[in-house]
Amino acid sequence: MTLIEKFNSKLSSIIKIPELRERIFFTLMMFLVARVGTLIPAPGVDVDRLAAMTAQNDILGYINMFSGGAFTRVSIFALGIIPYINSSIVVSLLTSIVPQLEEIQKEGESGRNKITQWTRYLTIAIAVIQGFGVCLWLQSVGLVYNPGVGFFLTTVTTLTAGTIFLMWVGEQISIKGIGNGVSLIIFLNVISRAPSSVVQTIQTMQGNKFLIPLLALVAFLGTLTVAAVVMFQLGQRKIPVHYVGKGFSAKGGMGQNSYIPLRLNSSGVMPVIFASVFMLIPGVIVNAIPSEYSIKTTLAIIFNQKHPVYMLLYAVIIIFFSFFYTALVFDPEKVAENLKQSGGTIPGIRPGNETVEYLEGVVTRITWGGGLFLALISILPDIIFTSMNLPVYFGGTGIIIVVGVALDTVQQIDAHLVMRDYKGFI
Known about the structure:
Elements: H1 3-16, H2 18-37, H3 47-56, H4 58-66, H5 70-73, H6 82-97, H7 99-105, H8 109-140, H9 149-176, H10 181-205, H11 211-234, E1 236-244, E2 255-263, H12 270-278, H13 280-288, H14 295-302, H15 308-329, H16 332-341, E3 344-345, H17 353-387, H18 396-419
Antiparallel strand pairs: 1-2, 1-3
């Protein structure tokens, strides 16, 4: 069976499952709603001049990428899902620091619902603050037709409502769709900018006598990056486990062998998304500094995406969030306790504290590798293209987000197929 025939077979399997078919259709409808919202502009802004400024500013271009082009139109979704991501980062950090919040989270479904509700409230507050900041900046650079209190009230309300609605869309995709709602919205926004980025790159290179070789080089590097991300995302570190069967003794060596699959990148694309949003903060602050201050020029150079200081800081933050997010999704003590209760042991490792320490050591080494890989893939394309003076308008961050979220989505669909006795994609 050829690859195309296998793919067609999987698609036919999906169509045969009503629930999965409905979930995919619902997700596509939510995608349509999210894209339509980016085309509805807030009134009173010179969008043509704003688009020109965004094309010349790396930070504004980055914000525009995460909003799927909505920022250049100051549409109702101009803030995108960024306030919700910021809120999630803050709440996650507070939960790991404040014991009371950690206890609430451990209360089960009710505790998680409380944390989710507080995240929503904080999202509204952050959206209001960011909306006010956007209005203040638009008015300061002269892009507002009728500046004043009326413009602030209508635009901040519109942008905040847009973010709340987009947050709701993401939650609906997670509940009624195929899951990973927020990640899929970011995926949609990034992929929607890909065609224009490719066209812009080709147009900028026109007139160069080495156009074809350069485009071939860019395509090769892009393919290589995608392949590396796929291999690393699917890679696993298998820890062998021996389960003693009922009525058998460990001494007799009879029982069942299995393993604990630890993903080489257990945090997925979340560290890149968190770090990307976090690194928008310095740029936004720099843009808010009045032009008469000389320090603005210096900071603008330092926090340019192609500056070594920016890249180094970006890499460090990706590694930090890799450890942080891994700590949220993997609990060595819980795994060790489950192994002990089910009669499982890791060969050569005693149950209890020794198993916990062993798992912590393995996860730490894997997370270092995963964090360094994500950081390298995120900044290496920019370093290569900048050193070769190539005007490429897409980089490693976008590729990681698109490929990572796509793989997670395929695995979600794969799980639905396997549960109904169909063979999955992977």
